[in-house]
Predict the structure.
Amino acid sequence: MPFRDRRVIVTAASSAPTGVFDSGLGGLSVLRHARSRLPAEDFLYVADSGHAPYGERSADWIRARSLNLGEFLLGRGAKALLIACNTATAAAAQALRERWPEVPVIGMEPAVKPAAAATRSGVVGILATTGTLASARFAALLDTFGRDVRVITRPGTGLVEAVERGELDTPATRALVASHVEPLLAGGADVIVLGCTHYPFLRGLIEQQVGSSVQVIDTGDSVARHLAHRLSGAGLLRSGNPEGTEHFWSSAASGTAEQVVQRLWHPDARLASLPE
């Protein structure tokens, strides 16, 4: 989708909402941590489920699409952008920062550093999308933090789609999780990094598969903490609001999609169609 160069006027006010986007509904796992840490904030969330998963898309496509989603959120008054997607962060975070230098842009990255510090066997397993694993950003992470450990990577093909369908604990999803986790265990990994924001919704299945001797790590809470730090540092942290709100859009809005959002977030959640 080509970027339409329409200038968005950004008004930085602490009362403004924070914009969040992901390739789909996985970013709700990050939003959950952000809501916990920032109870007074209002959030605007875009699920680009009509184009998920991003892992199989080109970096140029993801970059252009992310700029459009950023434009949509800023056009609705967002004071900051949280890219709740590892693949989109790798492809587009720099482009968003260059387009809107006055806007705090917070991204995701697989937790290679804490995993390398936590492993006892010296082997770390990374479960992520193809796009994340192939990115220069991931290669730089490995070069910086993975030199002293053996890193085994595994593209979690099919996992994003299972979460998007709300199939979190079906026999088919259990079998799919096992097919991805077993090679990591066979390689000796005692720490597994969830390198896609969809995967925390399958964490229970993953932990059942790996057992208590293997640590499972995701970065949702650390990213939420960083968001709070950036908003505070920019004077954009909202206070005095007893309870923040959330608004949701999707490029694949439907009754079924809304039911999945209600399962993953809250029974009262409503899902609007994302204008194209």
